[in-house]
Amino acid sequence: MITSRCGSRRKASLFRHICLISGLTGATLTAFSVQAATISGVDFLGQATFSTGTQFAGTEVGGLSGITYDATNNVYYAISDDRSQINPARFYTLNINLSQGSLTQGGVAFTNVTTLRNPSGQTFAPLSLDPEGIALTNNGTVFVPSEGDATNSSAPFVNEFSLTTGQQVQALPIRNKFLPTVTSGIRNNLAFESLTIAPNQQSLFTATENALIQDGPPATTSNGSFSRILKYNLTTDQPAEEFLYITDPVATAPIPSDSFSTNGLVDMLALDDNGNFLSLERSFSTGVGNNIKLYEVSLEGASDIQNIQSLSGVSGINPVEKTLLLDFSTLGVPLDNIEGLTFGPDLADGRRSLVVVSDNNFSPTQTTQILAFGVRTEAVPEPSSTFGLLAVAAFGAKRLLQRKKR
Q: How far apart are the C-alpha atoms of 211 and 178, rounded to whole Å?
């Protein structure tokens, strides 16, 4: 049996709570860890929307499923999940004006569009890919994951493309357990939806939106789903580790009750080089709409599951820890199909900007929605004597490790 880890980490606390994790070997106690800072709040700064059918440079703007920020040029790149059906697969360059600490309707402008091309320089054929995320490197390239298509055995991918020409540079290897078959692999439309690169550019992370067929069921109103986080070593360009992320159940029953509903891990954003992330979960139910939640995620203490071909019936696995930061239902605005997030520039008051985008599914009943936030952080206080010698020792060890990394 796999049990969820403790996710009740208190804000501005020196230590994470101690959690008991049950498994085959019995109860084990996680070690203390010290945080230099913690996210203390996420403030809504406003939104901009574009109606379905909006045109730019001969393409239809829509399907924005991932976004990344280019600090050097102060622009954003957003991937469209158009499967080369409306226009060739592509990503857009955007200007997003947060200089006044807010986002208004006129604050977003599309400035360029780049077509994705295969290694031969040709555009991708219709239905040959399903691009869902995007992350910028320091080498003038972007990585893009594709969900593939399990209905026609089209494999998912994580490929690197030139930022300027859009031509594919390389393809990262995909382990066989992810390849779609009748009895195993990705589920259709629930595969590699997310992508992020650690700030030191040493590691890339993507994740399945829901469980592989052999790992367990997709999310329902009564259960979450076993997503796999994949870590790649960008020095060797090889798979390195995998971790279990358990999504929430579907937030609300659909109307009627037998109609479509889903919840999944739709994007991740690296906070540092040590396995701490933001994660975005999107729940949708027919007749109800979207429910979006933002979590803080830690890989600390999570089991490496790369050598486990099926999670079904396996015991003693420690999933990643996640802590709720924001339920978007509290924002007071209608929510579209939010699927991508990225940090932007620091705001004038010191908060870090965060931008999320929606995939409108090219549907006339939806919009392309861009939301902006200010992320507040809080320094961790010095250890109190209440924690005793163990706290002081842990704090000192953390400082020593930080000095060694500099």
A: 10
Angular region, 138: left φ>0, alpha ψ -120 to 50, beta rest: alpha
pLDDT digits (tens, 9 = 90+) for 257-292: 999 999 999 999 999 999 999 999 999 999 999 999
CA distance 240 to 7: 25
Of 91, 85, 88, 82, nearest to 110 by C-alpha is 91
Whether residue 55 is predicted with pLDDT greater than 70 in this model: the reply is yes
CA angle 342, 207, 228 (to 5 degrees): 145
What distance in Å separates the CA atoms of residue 304 and residue 234, rounded to the nearest whole number? 18
Q: What is the DSSP string of 208-268?
A: ESS--TTT-PPP-SS---EEEEEEEETTTTEEEEEEEEEPPPPSS--SSTTS-EEEEEEEE
DSSP readout, 125-146? Answer: PTTS--B---EE-TTSEEEEEE
- Report the C-alpha gap between 85 and 82 in whole angstroms: 6
Q: Tell me how far apart the 2 most distant CA atoms of the chain are, in Å.
A: 65
Residue closest to 265 by CA, chosen among 244, 286, 285? 244
Contacts with 156 (C-beta within 8 Å, 6 or more apart), sequence order: 145, 146, 147, 148, 174, 178, 179, 186, 191, 192
User: pLDDT tens digits, residue range 378-392?
Assistant: 876 655 544 444 444
Per-residue pLDDT of 180-238, as tens digits, reads: 999 999 999 999 999 999 999 999 999 999 999 999 999 999 999 999 999 999 999 99
pTM of the model: 0.87
* Residue-range domains of the chain with CATH: 39-379 (2.115.10)
Contacts of 275 (CB under 8 A, 6+ apart): 298, 299, 300
Q: Which residue, among 25, 10, 5, has the nearest Cα to 246 in the 3D structure?
A: 5
Element (H, E) at 405: helix 388-405
- How many secondary structure helices (H) and strands (E) does the chain include? 1, 24
Q: Residue 384: its pLDDT value, please?
A: 53
Sequence-ordered list of residues with C-beta below 8 angstroms from that of 9, at least 6 positions apart, any chain: 16, 17, 38, 296, 321, 323
Q: At residue 404, what are phi and psi to the nearest 5 degrees?
A: -65, -30
> In this predicted model, what pLDDT tens digit does every residue of 108-124 receive, in sequence order?
999 999 999 999 999 99
* Statement: residue 15 has pLDDT above 70: no
Average pLDDT over residues 330-349: 97
